[in-house]
Structures are given as C-alpha cells and as structure tokens.
C-alpha cells in the first residue's frame, strides 16, 4: 500500500491505473479507522482493482465548539488497518494541501440538512459536500463507499452525486457493530466504563421500535415513545433526538410507509453517539 500526501502524486497513480483499464473504489474517512471502516475497504476490495482510502479530518465539518483539535488521529494505526483491509492507496493530505489559500467557491447542501444531526450542526454538511466534491474530483472513483450508520450523510451524498452529475455509484454498507450491538465509532473510546455498558441499549431501543413496526404500529410518535422510554430507563445518557423520516428524502411523515429512517442521538459525558435503522414497510 502506498501512503500519498499530495494531490498530484495521487492523480498520477490514478491515471496509470486507469490507462490499464483498472476500476477504482474510494472510501473517504476522517481516520482513526475501526472495523466499520475496514468493512467498507473490504467491500471496495471485492468490487474493484484499486482501492483508495482518504484520511482527512476536515475542518469545514466542525463548528466553533466542536472537537476538531481533539478528534483522534493516528496515521500509523490507520495505515496498518487500511493495508490489512486491502487498500492500495492511503491519501493523507494536509489542510493546506486540500484547501490551499482561501477558497473562492464552496458547496452548500440546501435540503436534507435541517433534521437529525444537521439541524444541530449548522454548516456541517456544507463542509461535507465541499470536501467530497473535491475528493471525488481528485480520485475520480467508479464507486464510493459509506456506512449506513451515517444515514443522513448517505442521503446528502446521494443528492450531491445526482445534482452535480458525478459519474459515481454510491455503495451504502451495513453498520458494523460490537457483539452487544453498539455501532462501531471512533468516539466510543471516550465512553466511561459504565457508559460503555449502557451504550448497547441504544441499539436495543431501535430493535424494540422495529418489533413494534413489524407488529403493525404505524404512528411515528408511538415508535418514538417506545425508544425514549427504553433509553431513559436503561442509560444515564441525555437524548439529543429520536426522529423518524422518509428515506432518503428525510421528509416528515404522518404514517409510516415505504422506506423509513428511525434515528437517534444520545449524549454521554464525553461522547455523543448516533445510531439508526433503515426499514422498508
């Protein structure tokens, strides 16, 4: 696996690969790779001749009171994880390499951002679509891979690819979980011991919601109540949101039908965890 830090070098390698007729799978990440990221790399490895993983903590995604400086970083660890999963290139640009002097043009997400995490992090998804526009143009992949845990991001990337006519296929990969159901996340390391034990109940709350839907419940507010009562009873976390939307449109619904997203976020002392289920009714 090659570790590359400049756009020019990466594009030179990509041109050589494409001249050989090789296809490219791309996994954009902010690093501190775990098994969830590795599942994306492995899926790309199975689909394509070449796999690119980017490691870039994007400052545009962080608000003034968020954890950009303290966001976990470990390039050697990431390199070992990426290589083990089958990556050919690990692209690790600096902020200066990605953005250079002050940008003149930035992308803006107009819809699908005023709910869930986007509602609570104004400007966050503008940073996401800006950096992904740059990364898609730099890597020119055939397929880009995302985890379903970040379901709102997948919905917005779906719109980005469609609206900007990127010739890219999006592959949304199932959430990778610990044995007790907790979704893998770089932020899980911030959980205290007791919080880690409680954190598994987030997924259990979602499973209770799925069971209720399978029994025929179609009222969103009743499903939300089931999850809320479970989390409040079994954890010390503070519920940030529990919301249900049509997917991927992320529009409200009065009665559950079609493809829906049941999503939640819970704050612990030093970690805010998100999880969701995408269900077809």
Straight-line N-to-C gap: 43 Å
Tally of separate helices:
9
**Level-2 CATH architecture of the largest domain:** 3-Layer(aba) Sandwich
CATH topology of the largest domain: Rossmann fold
Q: Can you tell me the number of structural domains? A: 2
Q: Which structural class best describes the helix and strand composition? A: alpha/beta
What does the main sheet amount to?
Answer: 6 strands, parallel
Q: Numbering strands along the chain, what is their spatial order in the largest sheet?
A: 1-4-3-2-5-6
C-alpha Rg (nearest Å): 19 Å
Q: Bin the strand percentage.
A: 15-25%
* Shape summary: globular
Number of strands: 9
Helix content: 40-55%
Q: What's the CATH superfamily of the largest domain, by name?
A: HUPs
Element order: H for helix, E for strand: EHEHEHEHHHEHEHHEEE
- Low-pLDDT segments: none
- Kindly report the average pLDDT value: 96
CATH class of the largest domain: Alpha Beta
